[in-house]
Amino acid sequence: MADKSIVRSPVFSDGGFYYAPFTKEGVNGYMKFSNEIRPFVQRHKMNGRDIHCDPDWKNLTYGDGWCRRSAALWHAERNDIFLFWALLWKNNGKGWIEWTDKKREQTDGDDPRQWCLIGAIRIDEILDEGQHPSDATARNRLRAKANAHVFKGLIGKDNRVFIGQKRHSMLFEKAVDLGIYKSSSLLLKTVRTASGEKLNWHHGIRWNFSTRACRAICDLTTHDGWKRAIILRNSIRKKNPNFDLLAGLTWP
């Protein structure tokens, strides 16, 4: 939300979308955006700002630094699956002026925002603080080296870099709507609070409190966790038929 006046990730009527990395203080990073996303950036507002390209979807890696929000990542292991969601903005065309929230035809009940699953990374290797990208296996070294959490050839202090399995990781071609504030909601069907309670739009813990921090949502060693993972897999595959979130995994 903080970047909404600078850059937005657009989602189109067919579910296709473009992913825009977060911005941060730094040099003028406008030219670092991909060609497809530049029409959705306020170029003049990128003066003195850079982009933080992580997750790195080109190389299928993800890095993070230690904080309360990311604490669960320090328990992640090989073959664990990261699901990434993003706030996308509905767009009628090919540029900044085509956001639906700027159109007169938008109705009061038509939210121009859409919270969606956009990709998945299944862990192949993990590099920790002080390690070199060269510590990864040969097939992963160049991909690891490109991650934003590598500083002067080292994984930064209190950082981890997760290298995805190419076969089982991807930025989706079509966004998968989480159904925020809808009665038939993928989020309500698959995500629980940290204490295991069901989410509810109207009372109790707010949904965004349960999705703000990185944490496990489906324990595949339990019947309930596997059942909810199947729902996620089917919803993703419906939009992205060439990707199976649980490929090669079986009920224990």
Features:
252 residues, alpha+beta, 11% helix, 24% strand
Structural description of this entry:
With 252 residues, this protein is an alpha+beta fold. It has a domain at 9-177. The chain has helices spanning 141-145, 186-190, 223-239; strands spanning 9-11, 22-25, 49-52, 61-65, 81-90, 113-128, 150-151, 154-155, 159-164, 170-177. The protein is globular and about 50 Å long.
Largest sheet: 6 strands, mixed
Strand content: 15-25%
Structural class: alpha+beta
Helix content: 10-25%
Taking all Cα atoms into account, the compactness measure Rg is 19 Å
Count of helical segments?
Answer: 3
Q: Report low-confidence residues grouped into runs of 5 or more.
A: 104-108
Order of helices and strands: EEEEEEHEEEEHH
Average pLDDT figure: 91
Could you give a quick summary of the protein structure above?
By secondary structure, this protein is α+β, with helices and mostly antiparallel strands.
